[in-house]
Structure formats: structure tokens, C-alpha cells
């Protein structure tokens, strides 16, 4: 922008679309391209792993019979060249077919349709808890800098960051379920009540939709401990990031200018400080969601949560390649969606981003 | 409205920042406050609005038309801020929030202080933008600060400061961050607004050239004290204090008229 010019009107390249819409379209197209890249990477990586799916799936006797092995390979398309296998895989993928699991003998898509909502419910609850508590803690710590509450919150976040999730999961399970008996045990819902009619696949939401309050109570009760365990790390992370982001923004000229305007403290905090501070926090929350997903493998194992973490573990140990690829694809797409959301939020929060 | 600062002392972390400052601002007059960096000019301005950094200790008096500002309860002080005493900061690139529209930043304190409705505040904001000579005021209302040049941004900041019709305006180095070519325009605007609205203006600057162009009275600060004060022509032509003479001597010859 030239200084001193009377006015600098924005130069519209395509005046038909507002900047925010252009920004969104660009990001979505990019995400689709990346999703294709994810299929390529998961396919190649899965086929590169040293390990013979035949050995993992057929018994010792069958292994020694070349005819059975050949038949099994042909059945699963493993006798064709790799590029052809990839072509077939993509062809199936567009039709929603991820192949059949060699373990469950069911379509992988069907397995995933059951496992993914369970994990999304767990991880979603965890990220919600982390965002609410992490941001609130961070803001409090920043506003009460160097006072007792700041020091206490620093300790809490340090514990959250340093304690390994699997250990915390075990301890929480032992203390709250086994010793104190204040939380329900493993699984997603009390088996006596049964799952609510599936709409979204999230038991808590489905129970509410069906108006089954007892099921909702049971599902929420089963959810809270693993979600908290999973969230603790992200709470610690977000507390620290929010604290430093808020402190930085508090020192900005425009916050002092807002005070000079005589705006009430809460307006300054929410409109002036948080709006800016949330930009780095959103970045971290997006990244943290990734680590949260990997954390689910352990938490799901300990709380017997029938999610994608458990499914991934089972498929990987049995070299169930279609299932492994399916998991890889789902996790990759979840990452893409999270990144897309983060990018879009940037654009919504910060008008300067839209212009790029 | 007259703003009288008497024997203002500020200590931050055991260090004396201001050591007894006396200043009087009169309506319709621009009072220039000069001095090198660290002499306490900016702190004097911030003290008036109660915006000193945390841990500052203040004594003395800041009276707005006889009302003591230093002892006002926070709520009352918030009414004075922006409502009766407004401030323009040095760098318009950082003193406007980058993620809020110009219109939002112009109207929010109007609506808060004056209790205006959305439409009323909007009309008044557009009028203000015209007054500070922003071309295309209607359009500018919807835009964000980064879409304007530095000089235009400072004009917007001035409009923001004037939104609630304050009686006192504190301008802290309002032209220092601007190109020389646009400085004159912003100074002319400040001068004009001061005359037109009867504002009492405190113009903080280290630039004696700026000072000589617009100030009616000039005070010179050094080490937290006002060492010399008086009408511009006297202070700049026949300075009493050796420090003022040093300041003037450090200028290129032609600048002070």
C-alpha cells in the first residue's frame, strides 16, 4: 500500500465473489487434492510394510500348500501388479467400497461406520473439554499473572503435559471405577440399557434425540472418564498457549487504545483480547486434535471403547491390509477436515488472511 | 473544559518517572509537550487517563474542570475515558484492532458512552469519517484498518478519539510514525478540530518542528520535570532554560520559524 495516497481501494480481481467465499473455495479444493494424496500414501505405505498378510491370516498348514496361498492371494487381489491394485482400490473407494476385512469378513466400511463414531464421540468430547477448560485456565492465568492462581494453573498444565496418557487411564480406571466405584466401567453404555437408535452414531446425541434420558445418563457417564483422561494433555497445552497468547495481546497498543476509549473490561477481554489470542490457540488446538486421536488407541484399549483405535490395533497386528488402509484413510481425512476447519476459522477471525 | 495537572509524581518500581509536573490545558488551545525520549512526556499523557503500567504509584492532582481524576472510582473513570478525555496514539498501525472493522471501532464506545442505537451511531461515524477527510466515508465504514494507508489510519484513529465529543484530546506523537508528506495534513486536521470544536489538546512530540507548526503553548520536559513553559513564540525564540536552548540548537537551522 502506498503511503500518503488519498485512498487505496482494494483491487478486485474477480469482483463476483467476496474474499471470504474465494478463500473458502480455494481451501476446499486444496483439501480434496490432499485427500487423494492421502489415499496414495496409505496405499503405498501399507503395501511397503515388511510382513506377509498371507502368513498373518492363514494357518501354518495352509501356508505350506501353494495352491491355497495362490487362491487366497487371488481372492484378495494380491496377485495383480501394485498399480492395478491401487486402481481397483480407488475404483472401489469412489463407490464407498473399502474392501473386505480379512479378519471380520465384513466390509471395512461397515466396521469403520461402527468404530468411527465411537472415537469421534470420545475425541470430540475430549477436545471440547480441553478447549473450554484450556482457554478458561489460560485466560485466568494471564489475567492473574504471577499470583497464586497463575502458579497453581501452571502446575496443573505441567502435570497434564507430562503425565503419560496410558498411565493416567489405568490410574483413573482403578481409582474411580474399582476403588471409589463412582464411574461406570468399560464400554460406551450400560449393556442392560442397550445403545440408543443410531442416527449420528454418537450415543450421547442419539439418546438425546430419542429422548432416552437413562441411556443418555449412562452414555455420558461412560464417556466422561476416558474423555477427561484424553483431554488432560490438551488442557495443559492449551492453558499454556492461551496464557502466553493473551499476555502478548494484553501488551498490544490496540488494547491500551480500547482502554483509553473507556470500554468495559469484559468487552475489551472478549472483543479485543480473545479475538486476537484465539488465532494461535486455534492452530494449537488443531494440532492437538491429532495427538488426541493417537492417544485414543491406548485409552480405548484400557476402557474397552469400541473405537477406531482398537480397530486399528487389531488390524495392524493381523496385517489386515484393507482394514489398515481404511483406518489410515479415515484418520487422514479427519486431519484434513480439522485443518480445513482451522483454516476457515482463521479466515473468519482475521480479515487479513482472506486477502492472501 | 480546563485540565489542570499539578505536582504530578509517578514512581514505577522504585524509579521516579515524573517528579512534579505542572501543566494546564485550555479549551481551543494546543499545548505542545516536548522533550527527549524518557523525559516523561508519554507517561504524563497516560497518567491523565489512568493508563499507567501496573505497579505505578501516582501522587499529585489531575483536575478536569475541578473534578479530581486520580481518585475517581474505576467506573467513573471509564466514563471519562473516551467520553471526556480521549487519546490518539503514536502508531496507527498498532493502535487500531486489525480484526475489527473501522465502523465497529468507531461506534462501540459511542454506543456505550452515549447510549446511541446502531443506526444513529453509524450515521454519526460516517459523518466523523467525513470530518477527518476520509474519502468515501460510507465505504470506509465497512473496511478494516489494514486497507488504509498510514496517514488515513491516523485520521481514523482521530475520528475514533473524537466520537464521543470529548473536551480534552491527548495526542501522543501522532505524526511520528507517519511519512513526512502526510504529517502536515494530520497536524492541520488536529489544529482545525481544536479550533472548531474548542478542544483542549495536549500534543506530545519530540519534534520541535511539529511543535512550532501548531502549538499555542509549549512546555519542555527533562527527567520527569517541566523545565520551561510559555507561549510558543517566546519559548522557541527566547528560551530561558539551557536545556531548551540545547534542544533548539540540535535542530537544523531552517526548521523553527
UniProtKB/TrEMBL annotation, chain B:
The keyword Cell membrane applies. Keywords: ATP-binding, Cell membrane, Membrane, Nucleotide-binding, Transport. CDD domains: ABC_NikE_OppD_transporters (cd03257). Residues 3-248 form the ABC transporter domain. It is found in: Cell membrane. Belongs to the ABC transporter superfamily. PANTHER family: DIPEPTIDE TRANSPORT ATP-BINDING PROTEIN DPPD, OLIGOPEPTIDE TRANSPORT ATP-BINDING PROTEIN APPD. This is ABC transporter ATP-binding protein. It comes from Nonomuraea ferruginea.
Amino acid at each position: 500500500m502506498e503511503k500518503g495516497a488519498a485512498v487505496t481501494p482494494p483491487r478486485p480481481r474477480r469482483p463476483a465473489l467476496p474474499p471470504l467465499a474465494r478463500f473458502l473455495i480455494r481451501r476446499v479444493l486444496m483439501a480434496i487434492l490432499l485427500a487423494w494424496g492421502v489415499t496414495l500414501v496409505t496405499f503405498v505405505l501399507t503395501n511397503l510394510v515388511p510382513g506377509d498378510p498371507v502368513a498373518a491370516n492363514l494357518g501354518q498348514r495352509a501356508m505350506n500348500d501353494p495352491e491355497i496361498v495362490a487362491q487366497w492371494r487371488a481372492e484378495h487381489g494380491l496377485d495383480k501388479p501394485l498399480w492395478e491394485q491401487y486402481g481397483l482400490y480407488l475404483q472401489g473407494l469412489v463407490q464407498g467400497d473399502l474392501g473386505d476385512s480379512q479378519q471380520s469378513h465384513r466390509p471395512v466400511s461397515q466396521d469403520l461406520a461402527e468404530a468411527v463414531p465411537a472415537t469421534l464421540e470420545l475425541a470430540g468430547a475430549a477436545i471440547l473439554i480441553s478447549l473450554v477448560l484450556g482457554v478458561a485456565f489460560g485466560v485466568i492465568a494471564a489475567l492473574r499473572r504471577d499470583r497464586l492462581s497463575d502458579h497453581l494453573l501452571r502446575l496443573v498444565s505441567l502435570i497434564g503435559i507430562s503425565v503419560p496418557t496410558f498411565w493416567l487411564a489405568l490410574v483413573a480406571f482403578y481409582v474411580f471405577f474399582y476403588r471409589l466405584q463412582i464411574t461406570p466401567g468399560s464400554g460406551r453404555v450400560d449393556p442392560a440399557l442397550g445403545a440408543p437408535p443410531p442416527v449420528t452414531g454418537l450415543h450421547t446425541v442419539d439418546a438425546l434425540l430419542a429422548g432416552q434420558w437413562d441411556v443418555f445418563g449412562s452414555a455420558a457417564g461412560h464417556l466422561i472418564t476416558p474423555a477427561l483422561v484424553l483431554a488432560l494433555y490438551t488442557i495443559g497445552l492449551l492453558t499454556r498457549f492461551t496464557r502466553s497468547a493473551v499476555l502478548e495481546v494484553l501488551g498490544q497498543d490496540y488494547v491500551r487504545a480500547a482502554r483509553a476509549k473507556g470500554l468495559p473490561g469484559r468487552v475489551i477481554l472478549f472483543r479485543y483480547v480473545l479475538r486476537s489470542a484465539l488465532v494461535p490457540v486455534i492452530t494449537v488446538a488443531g494440532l492437538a486434535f491429532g495427538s488426541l486421536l493417537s492417544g485414543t488407541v491406548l485409552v480405548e484399549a484400557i476402557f474397552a471403547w469400541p473405537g477406531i483405535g482398537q480397530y486399528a490395533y487389531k488390524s495392524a497386528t493381523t496385517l489386515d491390509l484393507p482394514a489398515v488402509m481404511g483406518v489410515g484413510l479415515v484418520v487422514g481425512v479427519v486431519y484434513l477436515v480439522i485443518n480445513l476447519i482451522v483454516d476457515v476459522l482463521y479466515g473468519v477471525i482475521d480479515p487479513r488472511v482472506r486477502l492472501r | 473544559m480546563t485540565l489542570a495537572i499539578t505536582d504530578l509524581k509517578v514512581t514505577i518500581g522504585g524509579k521516579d518517572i515524573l517528579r512534579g509536573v505542572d501543566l494546564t490545558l485550555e479549551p481551543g488551545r494546543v499545548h505542545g509537550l516536548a522533550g527527549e525520549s524518557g523525559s516523561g512526556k508519554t507517561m504524563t499523557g497516560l497518567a491523565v487517563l489512568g493508563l499507567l503500567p501496573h505497579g505505578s504509584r501516582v501522587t499529585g492532582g489531575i483536575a478536569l474542570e475541578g473534578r479530581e481524576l486520580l481518585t475517581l472510582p474505576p467506573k467513573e473513570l471509564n466514563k471519562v475515558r473516551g467520553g471526556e478525555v480521549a487519546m490518539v496514539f503514536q502508531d496507527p498501525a498498532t493502535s487500531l484492532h486489525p480484526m475489527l472493522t473501522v465502523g465497529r471501532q468507531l461506534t462501540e464506545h459511542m454506543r456505550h458512552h452515549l447510549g446511541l442505537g446502531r443506526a444513529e451511531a453509524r450515521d454519526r461515524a460516517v459523518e466523523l469519517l467525513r470530518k477527518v477527510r476520509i474519502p468515501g466515508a460510507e465505504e470506509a465504514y465497512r473496511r478494516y484498518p489494514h486497507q488504509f494507508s498510514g496517514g488515513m489510519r491516523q485520521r481514523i484513529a482521530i475520528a475514533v478519539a473524537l466520537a464521543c465529543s470529548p473536551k480534552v484530546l491527548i495526542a501522543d506523537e501522532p505524526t511520528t510514525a507517519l511519512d513526512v508528506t502526510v504529517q502536515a495534513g494530520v497536524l492541520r486536521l488536529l489544529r482545525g478540530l481544536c479550533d472548531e470544536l474548542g478542544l483542549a489538546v495536549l500534543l506530545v512530540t519530540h519534534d520541535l518542528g511539529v511543535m512550532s507548526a501548531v502549538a499555542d503553548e509549549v512546555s519542555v520536559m527533562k527527567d520527569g520535570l517541566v523545565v520551561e513553559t510559555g507561549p510558543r513564540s517566546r519559548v522557541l525564540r527566547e528560551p530561558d532554560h539551557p536545556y531548551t536552548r540545547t534542544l533548539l540548537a540540535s535542530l537544523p537551522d531552517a526548521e523553527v520559524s
